[in-house]
Design a protein that fits this description.
Blueprint lengths: L1 H8 L6 H31 L2 H19 L5 H19 L6 H17 L1 H21 L15 H56 L3 E5 L5 E4 L1 H7 L18 H15 L4 E9 L5 E12 L5 E10 L1 H23 L3 E6 L4 E4 L1 H7 L3 H4 L4 H4 L6 H12 L6 E7 L5 E12 L5 E10 L1 H47 L7 H24 L8 E3 L1 H16 L3 E6 L6 E4 L1 H17 L5 E12 L1 H5 L7 E10 L6 H4 L19 H11 L3 E7 L3 E11 L20 E5 L3 H13 L3 E5 L2 H10 L6 E5 L7 H11 L4 E6 L3 H6 L9 E3 L4 H13 L19
Helix pairs in contact: 2-3, 2-4, 3-4, 4-5, 5-6, 5-7, 6-7, 15-16, 15-22, 16-21, 17-18, 18-21, 23-24
Length: 842
């Protein structure tokens, strides 16, 4: 009952007038019944039927208004106030002064329910009604005031006093209630706004991905959002509110959090703090935290608010990025390529150590500078500027080769790999360039091209050597035989001698071709370079003439070298002739020998040379010298600066070929007007030089042994047979390997020597030698060939200890070589089989 009564007395402040009306109506119904019964009873007893009717109608009106609550408020309030007015007016005629209470209540209730203006109008209406009723003289006797009499003026006085008090109270109550209503309206609006903001704030907190919490002065949680609950692994906010960090985190973290909280509660905000913690799964986490104090209206601190953002992924990404940057920085620092980074104006912003080594500039020296100020030669700046314009326009020049200058004013050749850099809008922001110093590679490429050119010409020379040498052997051999058969007084002897000289010159030309192409078969031996110079000195003096002074400056003693003495004599002869031709009006020519130790740097720029001690042969002159463009081409075959018919262009090419085939190298220094110096470097050997061969007898040696001659060239075979027959040998001949096999099978006597060509159609000389030596174990073998050493090697012949005669040869050379092979101790020879896999000596 009390709860129902309490609920009855509760009025919604947002619509308090309607609530008050409902309360008045409900109370009016209850109390109206209480008043209605005695009033009707007394009115009936006294015969006031009108009062009974009025009271009954008024009570029914109140009940209907209370029952029909859906009627709009102003209609219900106006009807209720008019019931009071009607009741007061009616009772004024019968019951007297009590009627003023209803009129008084009419104006007061109107002011309360409908506002001060309506209340004032009701007070005026009540006063007017009283005046009207008094004027009509129909008031009850109880309403007449004796002192005033029963006159109308007296009634006016009474009415005015009633109106004064009624109006004052009505207006006062109406104004107070209006002000209260406005204040209540504002408070309700403020409360509604605050509630909306609170809900909005809560929605925002719940939606935030960050951890948001508040704590009281005892560091207990007062408010937490769902993200906070998820981090500590609980579901309900009630499980966390009122508890401290020690209830959720390890002590080491809780201690640090508590120290930070106390600092904030002391009035010092915590801004941009990185904190380490653990999540519900025990994983190490990193948070970015802000904590600020919370204050009340007076400014006193009542707690703190904290916001924490999970930056674990970001920190891991930063750590990975830093690791990658450090790795990239290390790679840039240690990479062998020059790393050059420039901005949109091509001014350098990065320059790695490789670039410092390459160009000689430290990074601090080039930062902010343009390539034109540092590494681009003046002659190339126009073309490089055009390249930069294309790069800036988005046309990539990704690769290129250029000449660049160094800090020491040197020039290097660089290979460039360029990558233009653009921002997200496509604007050019810089250039990344990788540079490689290819100076040595370009030099090696040029050397390789030269070597390939020499190789190609050597293959051409070797291709014609065999047939050409066969023809020269026949021409020179028969010429020599005819010369021997003619008496000194024969007039034809001079003609034959000229044929023989022409053949010898042709043979010399063939030897030069093979020498410069480094494919001539050589017969190297340990020798003293001083002896070569001394033996050739008389010939050289006659060769250079009297207007050129020859000076020899020989170092004694001189370490030995391994080379072909005839080829070294050819080198010396060609160098001296070249020096003589550079001094047409005379001068000085100096030949020097000595020792020198070549270092690694020299070996790197001279392919095929090993660092270490070498013997030096230098030929210098005081001639006209050479400009650089001539000097760069002097070793090309057939290149000559002499007039037509005055040089073949093979002299210096031959020198280079012989020197390189002997394991050495050649260096040239020359300036226009200052003469030239050619330096030949040959590796020395720690062996004793072999003495000069004995003078060749003027008369060809003779013998009676049986010689098997295998040669596919008929004319050369006939010449060789005649030479050997004239020397007393028994000659068996065959045109190829198959004929040789048949000759051996059909000949039952011993065969002492096999003279065979190396390269023949079908079965080659090596196979012939193998077959013959099986049936004649003590057989000696002499190989003959006009091919280059590569062809000889391919046929498995040439090695140290192998007997070999190079075409073209003279009749005396053949006779001497045959006698030499036959007279050599058999145990000193190497078997043919051991020579099959041997390599040539160059």
């Amino acid at each position: 009952m009390r709860r129902r009564l309490a609920n009855l007395l509760v009025i919604d402040p947002r619509n308090w007038r309607a609530g008050l009306l409902s309360l008045i109506l409900q109370v009016g119904v209850v109390l109206g019944v209480v008043v209605y019964v005695p009033s009707v009873y007394m009115a009936s007893e006294n015969g006031f039927i009108g009062v009974v009717v009025v009271d009954t109608v008024a009570l029914l009106g109140v009940v209907l208004l209370s029952w029909f609550g859906t009627i709009p408020f102003r209609w219900r309030a106006s009807a209720f106030c008019l019931i009071c007015y009607a009741l007061g007016t009616t009772l004024m005629f019968s019951v007297g002064s009590v009627s003023q209470i209803y009129l008084f209540g009419f104006s007061i209730l109107t002011a309360i329910l409908l506002g001060p203006r309506s209340g004032f109008a009701a007070a005026v209406l009540s006063a007017g009604t009283m005046l009207l009723v008094g004027y009509l003289g129909q008031v009850a006797d109880e309403m007449r005031m004796a002192p005033m009499g029963h006159t109308f003026p007296g009634w006016v006085v009474i009415t005015l006093n009633f109106a004064l008090v009624n109006t004052l109270l009505t207006v006062a109550i109406g104004v107070v209630l209006a002000a209260t209503d406005q204040a209540l309206t504002r408070e309700i609006a403020a409360h509604h706004s605050l509630d909306s903001q609170r809900k909005l704030l809560r929605t925002l907190l719940d939606a935030l991905p960050d951890i948001v919490f508040t704590k009281d002065m005892n560091c207990r949680y007062a408010l937490v959002n769902p993200r906070t609950l998820a981090e500590v692994g609980i579901e309900s906010e009630d499980q966390m509110v009122g508890k401290t960090d020690y209830d959720f985190f390890p002590k080491e973290f809780a201690d640090r959090f508590r120290a930070d909280d106390l600092q904030v509660l002391a009035g010092k905000p915590l801004v941009d703090r990185e904190e380490r913690s653990v999540d519900a799964g025990g994983n190490q986490m990193c948070y970015w935290t802000i904590k600020v104090p919370l204050r009340d209206e007076s400014g006193a601190i009542v707690g703190l608010m904290g916001i924490s953002r999970d930056i674990t992924s970001r920190k891991r990404s930063e750590a990975e990025r830093n690791r990658l940057l450090a790795q990239l920085r290390l790679q840039i620092e240690r990479m062998p390529l020059g790393y050059l980074l420039s901005d949109a104006n091509f001014r350098y912003t990065r320059w790695n150590p490789a670039a410092e080594r390459m160009f000689g500039y430290k990074e601090a020296e080039v930062l902010g500078k343009h390539p034109f100020e540092v590494i681009v030669p003046e002659a190339s700046q126009t073309s490089v500027a055009e390249i930069f314009d294309r790069i800036r326009a988005g046309h990539m020049d990704a690769h290129g080769v250029s000449k660049n200058r160094t800090k020491s004013d040197g020039t290097i050749t660089c290979e460039w790999y360029n990558t233009p850099l653009f921002d997200e809008d496509g604007a050019f922001v810089g250039l990344l360039s990788l540079a490689q110093d290819i100076t040595d590679r370009k030099r090696l490429e040029e050397q390789l091209q030269q070597s390939q050119k020499m190789e190609a010409f050597g293959q051409l020379a070797g291709g014609v050597a065999h047939d050409f040498n066969n023809l020269l052997t026949v021409i020179n051999g028969y010429s020599e035989l005819v010369l021997r058969s003619l008496p000194a007084s024969d007039p034809n002897r001079g003609l034959i001698a000229e044929i023989f000289k022409a053949g010898e010159r042709s043979a010399s030309l063939t030897r030069q071709l093979l020498a410069f192409s480094r494919q001539q078969v050589m017969a190297p031996r340990v020798l003293d370079l001083n002896s070569v110079v001394t033996d050739a000195e008389k010939m050289l003096r006659r060769l250079i003439g009297e207007d050129v002074k020859l000076v020899t400056n020989l170092t004694m003693p001189l370490p030995a070298v391994r080379a072909d003495p005839g080829q070294l004599e050819q080198v010396l002869l060609n160098l001296v002739v070249n020096a003589r031709d550079s001094m047409p009006t005379g001068g000085a020519l100096t030949i020097e020998t000595g020792t020198v130790v070549l270092g690694d740097e020299f070996a790197q720029t001279h392919p095929g040379i090993h660092p270490g001690p070498h013997v030096l042969l230098a030929v210098s002159d005081t001639g006209c010298g050479m400009p650089p463009e001539i000097k760069s081409r002097i070793f090309e075959p057939f290149f000559t600066t002499k007039g037509p018919g005055k040089g073949t262009g093979l002299g210096l090419a031959t020198v280079l070929g012989i020197v390189q085939q002997s394991g050495g190298t050649l260096e040239v220094s020359s300036e226009v007007g200052m003469g030239s110096i050619f330096k030949v470097y040959l590796p020395w050997v720690d062996e004793t030089p072999v003495g000069s061969a004995a003078s060749v007898a003027l008369q060809a040696p003779r013998g009676t042994e049986t010689v098997l001659l295998v040669e596919d060239e008929a004319a050369l075979r006939a010449l060789s047979r005649q030479i050997l027959t004239s020397c007393g040998y028994n000659v068996l001949e065959a045109a190829n390997g198959e004929q040789a096999k048949k000759v051996v099978e059909g000949y039952r006597k011993p065969i002492h020597l096999l003279v065979t060509d190396v390269v023949m159609p079908g079965v080659g000389g090596r196979i012939v030698a193998e077959r013959v030596t099986k049936s004649h174990p003590g057989l000696r073998v002499l190989f003959v060939s006009g091919y280059t050493d590569d062809a000889v090697v391919r046929h498995g012949v040439f090695s140290e200890g192998t007997n070999f005669l190079q075409k073209p040869f003279s009749s005396a050379a053949l006779a001497l070589k045959v006698r030499e092979v036959l007279d050599a101790p058999l145990e000193a020879e190497r078997t043919v089989q051991s020579s099959v896999s041997a390599t040539p000596q160059k």
